[in-house]
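Practice problem: predict the structure.
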Amino acid sequence: MPKRNLFVMLVMVAVAAAAWCARERSAHGRRLGEVLATVERSYLEPVDQERLFNAAVDGIFSQLDEHSDFVSGDRRDELEGLLDQQFGGVGLELVEADEPREISVLTPVVGSPAWHAGIAAGDRIRAVDGEATRRLTLEETSRRLRGRPGTAVVVSVVPAAAPSIDPADASGAAARDIVLVREVVRTESVLGDRRRPDGSWDWMVEGESPGCALVRITAFGERTPDEVKRAVATIASEIDAGRAIDALVIDVRGNAGGLLSAAVDVCDLFLDDGVIVSTRGRRGVTDSGVEAAIDVRKASRGAALEGVRMAVLVDGLTASAAEVLAACLQDHGRALVVGSRTFGKGTVQTILPLSDGSGLVKLTTAEYLRPSRVNIHRRSDDDSRDVWGVSPDSGCEIAPTRRQNEALESWRRHRDVVVSKGSAAASGAPASDSPLPRQVDAVLAKAIEAVRAGR
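Answer:
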């Protein structure tokens, strides 16, 4: 048989096999489509197709793990904004007060339209585009402030110093209307010990001598590695200038994770060699039997702040990518882990957009292992005796009470506030007296002591 004819036959066989496989794979999809069409066509009452689709999708994902999901609408915007670390809006972080019920500004974002307009922490948002916020939830108010860059929104603001007005009073006499034009607002994921008057971060823990640097990572987004690099470069420059700094504390308490790649890059910054994390994908049949593909991420040459001892602060809300960071630095002996046992979320979710752009499929596609190849993920039947999560080093266990955590959160909010542009504080006026970090944050204090003790 001529080689050309043999080649054509092989191609035809391959195409036929692929078509048969596709037929088998799409059989369930056709059946599902037929069920939806039958319900839409024959059910007693008209049923909206979108509702049927959403119900079917909910049923599918109910059979998977709790981290897999179909994400659409506002939830999609929120997820993408979290990972991209940017969104279209005016740059206001809001909080809801109970008595009287009012929506107030927690802090403006440095450089945002709200910051340039002089809106300050504590100001009350009385209305958005004429809609009274007393009729809106906190989420609805935030959603109305967001939007396409270049569009305008009218915000009615009551200054923090003004007396509170009964929300039932719709006159809004104490409010002033501010027209804000939405821009792309970029959020921070890396914070320091306290704000400087210009809105930048002071990375040095107040009251510590020799110096101790503090880098707080709230989430792992696309720009997190660059933010950490800039913080580390600033700390290194202070050392080069002769300042004595003997400790670096990375705080990932309450950090629910984010992008695995971001956590890998941050780990790489502090390691000169070795495995950062291994991810194990779906098991498949190979010549050796049934096994899963292992992807090993390794550190590249060069480590930052080599002469500075480190600690990582964790708690029960430290999860996913944040656990990767803590486990990696602990296994390599680069940092002590201080606090309480982490959440135990050791799976990787891949974000897969639908072809029509209507939503995202967030699907668990792998699990990860720490450099020691020990498991991190806590399964449904695990208890406290099983191996999961990241546990503090010996002698570094500490779990503050609820009251201590609430006091710390309130104190931190005060130190993290961005001063509005043009205020007295922004011009260099001294800040009000505040307790030192060591006096408020018992976990941070224990970490500094453990690092300096050379444990």
